[in-house]
Amino acid sequence: MTSVALTIAGSDSGGGAGIQADLKTFAALGVYGVSVITALTAQNTRSVSAIHNVPADFVAAQIDAVFADFKIGAVKIGMLSQAAIVDAVAEALARHRAHTIVLDPVMVASSGGRLLDASAVDVLRGRLIPRALVVTPNLPEAAALTGASLARDEREMEVQAREILSLGARHVLIKGGHGSGEESVDLLVGQGDTVRLAAKRIDTKNTHGTGCTLSSAIAAELAKGRDLVTACRNAKAYLTATIAAADQLNVGHGHGPLHHFYSSWRKS
Question: Is residue 268 part of a domain?
C-alpha cells in the first residue's frame, strides 16, 4: 500500500514553508501527502504581511475528511496560530486515535512574523505536546516553551529538551540550526540515550522552511515504517542536501527556499 502522511499546517503563499514545503518534502521522499490547512498567510521570502485563520470547526472537518478515507501513516503538525485551532486539532487527533505525531511548534517565521498567538502557547503545551511521538523545536522555540534563555551549548540544549519531555512528549528533537560553530547539531532526547545528529553547517541565506522540511521529512520516513532514530537521521540528511542545493534556485529577494527537488531536477 502507498505510504500516506498528513500535514496540518498553514499555507505559505511564497511556497517555501508550511503546507507547500511539507507536500514537496513528502513527494520528494516517495510518500503521498494529504493536508489540512489551518491558516492562509500572505507571505514571501521577505515577510509575512497578513494571516487569515481558518475557522476551528473547518480545520476539524478537514481532519475528519482525510481520516475517513486514507490510512494515515504519520501526522506532521506545524502552524496552528490560535488556541481554538490547537484545541480542535487535539480533539480530532484523539478522536481518530492518531499516535505517530511529529509536532513542530511553529511560533515565528524565519522572516520574523509571529505565527502562534501568545495565548495559544499554554494550550499547545498542555494538549498537543503530550500527544506527540516527537516534538521538534529550534533553539528559540525551546527557550519559549521552557521559559529559559537561548541554549548556548549541547548541555543546555539537552536540559531544555528534557524539560519539554516532562510535558508528556515521548521524544524531543531539539535543533541547533540557530547555533554557531562548524557543525549544526540536533539532539534526539527520549527515555534512553541521547542521539546526536550532526551535519556540516552550510553558509547560505536561503534557509526558509528548514523546520517545516525537517519535521515533514521525519513524518514521511515514519509513514514508510522507519523507526524514529532512522527517520530522524534520514530526515537530517535530506534537509542538509536541500540546504546545500538552495543557492541553485534563484527566486525571491529575501531568505529563499530550500531546493526540495534537487535530486530529480538535476537528473532532468
Answer: no
Prediction pTM value: 0.95
Q: How far apart are CA 11 and CA 168, in angstroms?
A: 28
Does the annotation count 175 as an active-site position?
yes
Catalytic residue, candidates 38, 209, 213, 256: 209
Quick check: is 232 catalytic? Answer: no
| Residue-wise pLDDT tens digits, 242-264 | 999 999 999 999 999 999 999 99
Q: Which of 76, 78, 81 is nearest to 55 (CA)?
A: 81
122: in domain: yes
Examine the residue annotation and report whether 207 is marked as an active-site residue of this protein: yes
| Domains contained in the chain, number | 1
210 among known catalytic residues:
yes
- Structure-block grid coordinates of residue 38: 489551518
The answer to whether residue 193 sits within a structural domain is yes
Domain span at residue 49? 4-260
The answer to whether residue 175 sits within a structural domain is yes
CATH of the domain at 146: 3.40.1190.20
- Is 211 considered catalytic here? yes
Beta bridge partners of 39: 10, 53
